[in-house]
Amino acid sequence: MKASELRDNTVAELQETLHGLLKEQFNLRMQQGTGQLSRPHLMKLVRKDIARVKTVIAQKSGDAS
Fold this sequence. Notes:
Layout: H1 3-6, H2 11-34, H3 41-64
């Protein structure tokens, strides 16, 4: 997921994306806790995607005011 792709979305769509990523992060944490996480690199990728989405949301809300 690239920031340039995210900038084309509305704030509502970004909030939906963020919600989905947070759910995915939770599921990965649960898998890690039970020892079932087969691809641990996904934790880092999801965390970075969450940061990207939050950054774009902050930029868009800063433009509005």
